Amino acid sequence: MPQTVAHRSVKSFHTFGSELQHTLIFQNFFNVALRINATTLILFSHLFIDNDKALIGFLVFLIIVTSVALLIVIYKIYILRYFLYLNVVSVVDDEENLLPVEPIAAEVLLEAYKRKLADEGRLFLAEFQSIPRIFSRYSVKEAKKPCNVPKNRYVDILPYDYNRVQLTTGNGEAGCDYINASFIDGYKESKKYIAAQGKAVIFITHSDETVSDFWRMVWEQQSSIIVMVTRCEEGNRVKCAQYWPSPQRETEIFEEFIVKLNSEDHCPDYTIRHLSLTNKRDKNSEREVTHIQFMSWPDHGVPEEPHLLLKLRRRVNAFKNFFSGPIVIHCSAGVGRTGTYIGIDAMMEGLEAEGRVDIYGYVVRLRRQRCLMVQVEAQYILIHQALLEHNQFGETEITLPELHSTLSTLKEKSSGNEPTLMEDEFDRLPSYKNWRTFNTGITEDNKKKNRSSSVIPYDYNRVLLKLDEGHSRESDPDEDEEEDSSDEEEEESTKYINASHINGYWGPRAFIAAQTPLPDTMADFWSMVYQKKAATIVMLSDCSEEDKSDSVYWDKDKKTFGEIEVEVASTDTSPTLITRNMLIRHVKRKESRPVKHFEFLKWSSAELPEKPQDLTDVIKDIKQSCGSSKSQRSTPVVVHCNDGSSRSGIFCALWNVLDSADSEKLVDVFQVAKTLRKERQGMLSSLEQYQFLYDALEGVFPVQNGEVKAPQASAAIEIVNETKAAEQPTEKKEEQPAEKKEEQPASTTSNGQQEAAESAPLVPEAEKEVKKEEAEEVSSTPTETTPLEGASNGPTVTVEV
After folding, report:
1. Which of 392, 419, 452 is the last residue of a domain?
2. Are residues 638 and 537 in contact, defined by beta-carbon separation less than 8 angstroms?
3. What distance in Å separates the CA atoms of residue 448 and residue 440, rounded to the nearest whole number?
4. HSE (CB half, 13 Å, CA atoms) of 267?
5. Are 83 and 178 in the same domain?
6. Where is the Tyrosine specific protein phosphatases domain (predicted)?
């Protein structure tokens, strides 16, 4: 028992002894009264010896008085015991369920995670449920004052009095020093963080009171970083008021505080805002505040990729200042997501400093400083997963200024037969072999639809192709035909095609990676293009190969495949690319859709293109053709090669790392490759493919005068319009054989690519099939329950996360 609890218990027992002493005096008085009553009885018995009725009445009176006195004594004892329970036993209950969980060394972190994950995550559940949600010894009197109640968004999430953030200035009114925020200790540093609730001004009042209090807190605590782990609206619910200026209104005034938006940088997972904060009372002391809003926390559950939170941590730490105050972190309630981020940041610091982590002990410590921190079991597991991610794979992110020096280090060969650092990095890639089911693609009816038996789409992200019969003349041409669930009923109403949804840098399902259609599946291929509203097709297979002679799925003019009519309107040719402008139309509908078809010519039978620049230039041209607006990104790019993985994986990976380089000025080839391996079998399975991505980046961002040179616009590609080629047959067509003459076959690699991938370590969180998580990914109906993710099948908890 902790010393504070023991002290409290002893004090309570002293109080109980004092109260009990008063009770004993009362009992002695009662005994004296009984003796007096007995004497009186003897005396009055002589008086009433001849009057039996009077004697009986007197005895009844004495019995009633005695009974009442006895009941009073019993009630007094009960009250004392009740207060003893409140003062002593309840304090002990806060602590008695805690488990003796030992810190975990970095070397055994994976084994410990697997052990806790076993048996449907029972150890995780037991640990999490043993931590008190609220420590009752700490009072919350200030938060419950009538003047402060409107400032709390949730009635049960209140800061403890002993470590709440107190505002030192205000308007002099009662409760003006209160804000729903708590100081939180870091791994070693006291009051490193401030955990706060989301600004609730919109929900409670029509004033900017809580927003001005928030900025007052930032000003007084000299905080220079704000981490917001929520969107303002999620699932049609307002989670937090916008307390910063919008780009349209660069400046907002909240009482005496002037907040100005200097710049705003948007990335897929987060937005960084550079703000200026000025106090009207001291206009000369303008302060810079960095606001980082994490956008990739799903409405329910936790982020699927733990490395996203590690990436967020790197962004936050890049802005840390030794002289700045606590880091302000908030979500909606300031406990769930906020506690999870703080737990990851603090435990990462401990892992790097001591080589071990005490996640359980730190979460207990968090709950002692703010109730309900790390609110659900899924968040508790996520802390373990994030630390495991870092411990297994390290930091693989490279900024563009460091690109060439880092690549030199990665490729440098050491003495002897030691592998290079790049080979080590590639070997750390998890294989994800059979980490998800692919039952649909291996049924007897569907086996013949696969070109390769080793590349079958996973069930969780395979493209669901609706039956042709579902397309009627009356159907709405604009209806969203994307699959929104993986229910058995919907599965039965779909056809199989060897194609997978692939996530892009800017969002999910940016690509469809498919095998080159077989003669029997060409109609299905065009149905997929039509149903998924794809406007771009990238062909990476080589039509010149003998075994690929059946891969041409269009005609020179017009041809119907199943219920889709395909017309080639025009064809443009360059040395590296053939661009076909097509029109596709459902035979039961009048409207046609434009589709651009790009055939890459510089990829022969070799595993890799001879020149990485050829592929990067083509990607830039396709991006320019597709457009970069949000609406243009919403339609997938269909990429196909022979098996839908070997070449398609390189294309998707290079597209994503180039997007990252353009947006954030950094690349993470390892994480891109790891993600693609989870999405489709056979992607980036060889070291040569992995190194090709680095070589391509090195060519896109060359070094000039010791600095990385920004990529220039690619030279204009000379284009021949084949529809007019008959009229101008001489000059440009003669150039193509010369270009082909310069091509040299790229060196091939060993055929043991799959074996190399299988030997890579398996990421632990992918070892179990999480059906509930799959349902969340595709469910279109928002729900208020937060499932406990990971491997645990524990109860769902209705919470505000």
Report:
1. 392
2. yes
3. 12
4. 22
5. no
6. 310-381, 613-691
CA dihedral 340, 343, 349, 355 (to 10 degrees): -110
| Beta-strand relationship, 564-573 and 720-721 | antiparallel
pLDDT digits 0-9 by tens, 661-708 = 999 999 999 999 999 999 999 999 999 999 999 999 999 998 765 566
Cβ atoms 426, 699 nearer than 8 A: no
The reply to whether 640 and 721 lie within a common domain is yes
Both tokens assigned to 727: 């009229």
Say if 498 falls within a structural domain: yes
Quick one: pLDDT at residue 76? 81
Ramachandran quadrant class, 301 (left: phi over 0; alpha: psi -120 to 50; beta: rest): left
Residue 208 shares a structural domain with residue 333 = yes
Per-residue tokens: 650: 């390189």
Of 240, 331, 371, 652, catalytic: 331
CA distance 365 to 678: 36
Q: HEC states along 197-238?
A: CCCCHHHHCCCCHHHHHHHHHHHHCCCCEEEECCCCEECCEE
Q: Is there a single domain that holds both residue 218 and residue 255? A: yes
**33: amino acid identity, one letter:** A
pLDDT in the model for residue 58: 78
Q: Read off the tokens for 248.
A: 């349209």
The letter for the amino acid at 769 is E
Give the Cα separation of 650 and 569 in Å (integer). 30
Q: Are residues 33 and 158 in the same domain?
A: no
Please, are residues 377 and 792 in contact by the beta-carbon 8 Å criterion?
yes
Domain of residue 28 covers 3-96
What confidence score (pLDDT) does residue 62 get?
85
pLDDT at residue 633 in the model: 76
What are the tens digits of pLDDT across the range 194-232? 999 987 643 433 346 789 999 999 999 999 999 999 999
Q: Cα(212)–Cα(577) distance, rounded to whole angstroms?
A: 58
Q: How far is CA 404 from CA 393, 445, 650, 684, 714, in A?
A: 21, 50, 21, 22, 21
Per the annotation, the verdict on 232 as an active-site residue is no
Mean pLDDT (10-residue bins), the chain, 801 residues: 43 44 48 54 54 77 88 83 52 76 96 96 96 94 93 94 89 74 97 91 49 94 97 90 92 93 96 96 88 93 95 96 93 96 98 97 98 97 98 96 95 86 96 91 96 96 81 43 43 85 96 96 96 96 61 90 95 94 94 95 89 95 82 87 96 97 96 97 96 96 68 44 40 38 36 35 38 36 33 35 37
Cβ neighbours for 84, distance < 8 A, ≥ 6 positions apart: 12, 13, 16
- Is residue 122 in a domain? yes
Known catalytic membership, residue 331:
yes
pLDDT at 363: 98
pTM of the model: 0.77
543 contacts 552 by C-beta, under 8 angstroms: yes
210 CB-near residues (< 8 Å, 6+ apart): 151, 179, 199, 200, 201, 204, 241
Closest to 513 in 3D by CA, of 354, 634, 636: 636
Residues 133 and 65 in one domain: no
d(CA 199, CA 327): 16
Cα–Cα–Cα angle for 480, 591, 504, rounded to 5 degrees: 40
Residue 769 lies in a domain: no
CB-CB contact of 747 with 759 (8 Å): no
Q: What is the DSSP letter of 462?
A: B
Query: What are the φ/ψ torsions at residue 318 (nearest 5 degrees)?
Result: -65, -20
Among the listed residues 240, 371, 641, 652, the single catalytic one is 641
- The residue among 370, 333, 374 whose CA lies nearest residue 203 is 333
AA letter at 152: N
Same domain membership, residue 116 and residue 84: no
- Whether residue 706 is contained in a domain is answered as no
